[in-house]
Amino acid sequence: MSRSKVKMPQGEVAVDQPLPDAALGIFFQVAELLPTPISLLDAAGRYVECNSACARLFGIDRQAMIGMSVFHQLPPLPVVTAAEGPAGPGVIPNQAFETRCRTKSGAEVVLIVSAAAVLLADGTPGILCLLTDISAQKRTEEDLRTESVMLDAVIKASPLPITMVDTDFYVRLWNPAAEQCFGFSKEQVMDKIYPLWPDRDKESIEALRRFNRDEVLYGSEVLRKKNDGTVIRVKRYTSPVRDQSGTLIGTMAVLEDLTEQQRTASELLQAGKLAAVGELAAGIAHEINNPNMFMLTNAQVAAEIWRDASTFLRRHVREGADCLLAGLPYAEALDDMPELLTGIVDGALRIQRIVATLKDFCRQEVNAARSLVALDRVLDNTVFMLANQIKQRTDHFSLSCAKDLPPVYGIAQQLEQVFINVLLNALQALADRSGSVRVTVTHDQAAGAVVIEVQDDGCGMTPETLARIQDPFFTTRFEDGGLGLGLSISSRIVQQHGGEIHFVSEPGRGTTALVSLPAVYDMAERGDYA
Q: What pTM, to 2 d.p., does this model score?
């Protein structure tokens, strides 16, 4: 018997057995009881028969479907995939393929069509189709893809480091925040052993125990090592990760760098101490100021009394009489007394200035208003407050300010704190009194800035120390009580004033600190650096 060919969307299918009417009737009686949509098409794509499940799928009455063209009334969309490929030249075997169709209501459904070529009772070719609706599965897959894309976007955009390791501690996830926080690029760590443990053996054993306990950690604090060797404290939030079968495949962790919190807490503590010192200083200043004013006033009165009394004493001496004043001959006392009284007045005035400067420096500035600040005056006050330290540490100190410096916009007391910290570091770096500290203030018109340069002949710094000098809690004078906050706070203050601070140094060749602050030429152009 010659073989007939049936045209299908995938090609031509060869058939050689007719389907008797009786067999067709029995088949669709059984098919009526099945939930699977089943249909029989002729060679032109018209429905010869279908079961009720097929009619329900497309939302059309079963009898109305008979004779309807599947290609015109229910046109399939382009075929997406095919389960089987060609078996020979021009011949395709019974096959299954995926396609998209529309129901009577216009809804799109995704179907797996299992097609078999048959001969109808009249000997014409036909196609027997079993339809599997996979629309819900496709929607689920699409939802999962969407969720995966969204999750990936969240992980990439997260400001917190997010990592994942498998059960052998190999890195499987490393987001951009982890790169920025720890200094390891994604390429450096992916598919390699987790690099952040300060003590790998101890940490890996502890992590293995967590795996075995199926443990979730929420907010525990641990140490983690950065690429540059720095060890930082982080808060970690971890959860086990399982595959579809429930098998543990790793642990995901969200990490929070606590460095900034620690710095803020220490600065608040330091601010609290400074506030307490400020209150104490204000009280002491008041107690000192009252007797000092009394001493200053009396010294000035005593100087006037001496001027008047010296007139009578000179006359008395000229008449041939001599006298002793506090055990000193009158002639000697006449020369020394004005100098003594002047020294008392000058000393009292110095105490008065010290008290006023101390009160200004310790005044709380929580809501301090910004204003135009003359940096030469700020530096004069700074040098005055550090006069004792300067005298103790060097015989070669100089301050040079260019003329007609433009002002800057900010808070004078905060800027004094910056220069006190910078100058103290320069003075403490000197090996002996022969070393020098030079402060130069210039106006960089091209940059529109006032530049303060502090140079010392001290011991200098290694590149490693120089790289960390502005980090909070980093200090090379821990034994001397250094907290490592002075330059960190100074750096923040300068940034808040819209400026920059950086250091140049070499071991044995001293250090240069450069502070640049925006100059103000017009109040309308001053900007807001808060």
A: 0.45
